Amino acid sequence: MDFYDIKNAIILGFFLSFMIGPVFFMLIQTSILKGARAAIMFNVGVILGDIAFIVIAYYGSRHLLERIKDDPRLFFIGGLILVIYGLITYFDKSNKKEEENTPLIEIPVNSNYVKLFFKGFLLNFINIGVLGFWLGLIVVIGPTLKMNANHIFWYFTTIIISYFITDLGKILLAKKLKKKLTTNVIYKIKKSMGIMLIIFGIGLILKGFIPPEKLNLDNLIEQVE
To answer: Contact 135/60 with Cβ under 8 angstroms?
Structure first.
């Protein structure tokens, strides 16, 4: 895996850490109410849930990944999954309230570290949308890494590490973040994230149907000349 892939994995992990959802809020609230250690234990459970989904998505889609390697048009499937996930994120109005600048409500969190660990794991694992997202990402990333199991492993390991380090930053800055995260701000962030996923998904769909040579910048310049 080259530097370009590592850089992309780090950036992706960073942005994934800011995907708005129940895990995001619970992590901040746990840090404020119970302290950094409790929040880290909760986050470890969340990360383990993501790892479980990545493993399920990878082994559940290996046959599809092999086919994509031989037929790039099947990028359509991964792109479509991301577009659907983006649309759901964009149109989700669960955080759009009448009082748009109402601060987040504090939810009591159990301080037992073991319970916090399992709460983080279950809160993430029961969200089937997370599985769909990782599935779409694996369908996209696998063929670009030439189906090299070692490269795929390190790519997603880098994402998880970047994700976790960013979460540590959120834990340390939890109080400041909580003051800034009004429902109106959250709503705008969710819409932005949804748009980004839709654009990325559409790009992948086009990549599957447009011949690679036509996407090459040098070829495009030659055609214009």
So the answer is: yes
**Torsion angle of the four alpha carbons 125, 17, 195, 8, in this order, in degrees rounded to the nearest 10:** -110
DSSP string, 172-187: HTHHHHHHH--HHHHH
pLDDT at 68: 61
CA distance 4 to 189: 27
Encoded tokens for 42: 């909760």
Distance, in Å, from the CA atom of 30 to the CA atom of 42, rounded to the nearest integer, reads: 8
Going from N- to C-terminal start, the domains of the chain cover 3-96+109-224
Mean pLDDT of 193-215: 71
Do residues 150 and 82 lie in contact, with contact meaning Cβ atoms separated by under 8 Å?
Answer: no
Tokens 């800055």 label which residue? 173
Q: What is the pLDDT of residue 104?
A: 45
Distance from chain centroid for Cα 185: 19
